[in-house]
Amino acid sequence: RFFHLLLNPRLRRARALSMSWLVFSPALLLRLLCSSILTLLSRLRSYWTAAAAGPPGQRSEVTPTSVNYHFTRQCNYKCGFCFHTAKTSFVLPVEEAKRGLRLLREAGMEKINFSGGEPFLQDRGAFLGSLVQFCKQDLHLPSVSIVSNGSLIRESWFQKYGEFLDILAVSCDSFDEDTNQLIGRAQGRKSHLQNLYRIRSWCQQYRVAFKINSVVNAFNVDEDMSEHIVQLDPVRWKVFQCLLIDGENAGQSALREARRFVVSDRQFEDFLDRHSGVACLVPESNEKMRNSYLILDEYMRFLDCRGGGKQPSRSILDVGVKAAICFSGFDEKMFLRRGGKYVWSKADMKLDW
């Protein structure tokens, strides 16, 4: 072809003309550059879509039936075993949080639990109230719940938002004020137990199902709480075994060092045996707890705890629920086995208000 071109003047002139047009045409160069960029972006989009779907063996469909949204890490207590610590002060704008909640509802969410940090800390509870009302009134969720330490809850909040809330869980690890102080379940010398009993009364008055969460640890493992729990009569008493999470309450980068709070499996079982007569008790060992919760952090990223720490997915606000949930590490079988799905709408509870 080279000698044919060399010996043929007409072809030689045509080739020179085409090469001259290629070299000296900025418009063509610009078109080629734009085409290359578009091709690159298309390939990157394909790569991220495939990556977001997760590794081939982990792409099974997961429905976010029950989701725990920790929209803030800030807290006014200093519980020594806390496994979701104040590593950032970030909170999403309320409209962005609502957008994420709508995405979850469209993906099949039936229950949302708001937690922290302390969820009543943001805007004195107004931020939380807005989300609670949105989930019940706009998204028509069967169940909306909150976990709080109870210290910042006011009756005025119940008056404004109580009708939209199904369950309020208050954390209480001891019925001895000195023990609560040792644990860090306190703010100054204020009585944690007085708040607990006051909130129980408000829940009764404003028709919100009352729940108690307790963490069994080295400071309360020998306590008998039966009498107090029976008196308070919660719909559920969740009893957790103190859990270590790398980067949160264990390890060099952690804000807490919870090893001194840890109890053995045998000690945890002894605590459960001591309270076996309490009908509302729902126990959760480390094995049951670690991977059986769908946890969203303050950026609306699912947190995978399978490796002992918390590895975040990409935010559902960026990639959607289906893509992000593949990286949640969620164990749906354990979720069902630990009784994660129960009668969680107050409309279905036969409570004596």
UniProtKB/TrEMBL annotation:
Concerning InterPro entries, the annotation shows: Aldolase_TIM (IPR013785), Elp3/MiaA/NifB-like_rSAM (IPR006638), RSAD2 (IPR026372), RSAD2/Viperin_antiviral (IPR051196), rSAM (IPR007197), rSAM_sf (IPR058240)
Residues annotated as domain Radical SAM core: 61-281
**Superkingdom of the source?**
Eukaryota
Q: What Pfam families would the database entry show?
A: Radical_SAM
PROSITE patterns reported for this sequence: RADICAL_SAM
**Segments forming a coiled coil:** none
Q: Which organism is it from?
A: Salarias fasciatus (Jewelled blenny)
Localized where?
Endoplasmic reticulum membrane
Protein topology in the membrane: Peripheral membrane protein
What's the protein name? S-adenosylmethionine-dependent nucleotide dehydratase RSAD2
Q: Which coenzyme or cofactor does it need? A: [4Fe-4S] cluster
| Record bears the keyword Isomerase | no
Task: Return the PANTHER family for the record.
Answer: RADICAL S-ADENOSYL METHIONINE DOMAIN-CONTAINING PROTEIN 2, S-ADENOSYLMETHIONINE-DEPENDENT NUCLEOTIDE DEHYDRATASE RSAD2
What GO biological process, any one, is recorded here?
defense response to virus
Key words of the record = 4Fe-4S, Antiviral defense, Endoplasmic reticulum, Immunity, Innate immunity, Iron, Iron-sulfur, Membrane, Metal-binding, S-adenosyl-L-methionine
User: Which gene carries the instructions for this protein?
Assistant: LOC115407691
**Which GO terms label this protein's molecular function in UniProt?**
4 iron, 4 sulfur cluster binding; catalytic activity; metal ion binding
Give the matching SUPFAM superfamilies.
Radical SAM enzymes (SSF102114)
Its cellular-component GO annotations read:
endoplasmic reticulum membrane; lipid droplet; mitochondrion
